[in-house]
Write a structure and sequence with these properties.
Layout: E1 3-9, E2 12-18, E3 25-29, E4 35-41, E5 44-45, H1 55-58, E6 62-64, E7 70-72, E8 75-78, E9 81-84, E10 94-96, E11 106-112, E12 116-125, E13 136-145, E14 148-157, E15 163-165, E16 168-170, E17 172-174, E18 182-184, E19 189-193, E20 199-204, E21 211-212, E22 219-223, E23 228-232, E24 236-242, E25 248-252, E26 259-265, H2 271-274, E27 279-281, E28 286-297
Antiparallel strand pairs: 1-2, 2-3, 3-4, 4-5, 6-16, 7-10, 8-9, 11-12, 12-13, 13-14, 14-28, 15-27, 17-26, 18-21, 18-23, 19-20, 22-25, 23-24, 24-28, 25-26
Length: 299
């Protein structure tokens, strides 16, 4: 039987999951956007276990809404009106990773059984954000299974106006050796960016798969031809799938060794302006995307 506990660490509230054998563990930080802050599968560290006080810099495992990645200068126009988001990426003067990454979520449902554990978190926005003045509700459901994790994010438009959006997820994966790891995905184009790291076009992507990660430095976006991404390490293999109709991928290697961010998204950088992957949610309507992580040990 899985166990779910609510714990407090360093002034932050967490939901802690433990499998019946104690080898699979996970933590969700309620105060930091309901993010999956830690995940150990069968005794193997899968997610990079960053300290909570570094989250403001790395956004580890944050849910990205109402936009994924960056919005140039925090500015966009929608339905004939100009909006200005907070530029929280000060050095590049961009709005970064949406507006819910630092919000407090509450638990509205949880369940456990021998085979799985589940928790649903919720945040309701009253529309007082100047840059995104729309009322919405976001529910995040984490399902912990013997084969891995599924994350279901549902957006409800509570406003009397439509609003633009994209969704993304920003997990960092830990490898025993990134030089001996590789990733596999289907794409024939990579997005070119300017000095602000803003998309300005596409370039051909002809890298042979699997994509070997030895000595690479990445901060690149791709348009996916398939909804599946595979990541293989010396200790574990993972398959990430999405229910989104259109799928995009951001790969980023931070300064820390043997860590890579593999970010599934429903739109690309600056999507509020270039409209690539941008969707419109009408009043009282809902949108849901599910990301599934199937994990297996390498041995």
């Amino acid at each position: 039987m899985y166990k779910i506990n609510q714990i407090e660490k360093e002034g932050l509230d967490y939901i802690e999951f433990t499998s019946s054998n104690g080898k699979t563990k996970a933590e969700i930080c309620l105060n930091q956007g309901g993010r999956l802050s830690n995940f150990v599968f069968e005794g193997i560290q899968v997610l990079a276990n960053y300290e909570a006080n570094t989250y403001k810099d790395n956004y580890a495992s944050s849910i990205l809404f109402p936009f994924a990645n960056r919005i140039k200068d925090g500015e966009y126009r929608f339905n004939g009106k100009d909006y200005k988001l907070n530029c929280n990426e000060a050095d590049k003067h961009n709005a970064l990773h949406g507006t819910v990454y630092n919000k407090n979520f509450k638990v509205i449902n949880s369940s456990v059984s021998k085979e799985r554990a589940s928790v649903t978190l919720q945040y309701i926005d009253d529309g007082n954000n100047v840059g995104f003045p729309f009322k919405f509700k976001i529910n995040i459901t984490y399902n912990f299974l013997k084969t891995g994790i599924s994350i279901s994010t549902q957006i409800t438009n509570l406003d009397d106006r439509s609003f633009p959006f994209t969704l993304g997820w920003h997990p960092y994966f830990k490898s025993k050796s990134l030089n001996d790891s590789y990733i596999n995905f289907f794409s024939n184009s990579k997005y070119a960016v300017d000095e602000q790291q803003i998309t300005v076009g596409t370039v051909p992507f002809n890298t042979k798969m699997p994509f070997q990660l030895k000595d690479v430095k990445l901060d690149d976006g791709y348009s996916l031809k398939h909804n599946c991404i595979e990541f293989n390490t010396p200790d574990y293999n993972i398959e990430i799938t999405s229910t989104s109709k259109h799928n995009f991928l951001q790969l980023y290697t931070p300064k820390e060794a043997n860590i890579i961010a593999i970010e599934p998204m429903t739109g690309i950088c600056d999507n509020f302006n270039n409209n690539v992957g941008l969707q419109i949610l009408k009043p009282k309507k809902k949108y849901t995307v599910d990301w599934s992580l199937t994990v297996s040990t390498a041995n």
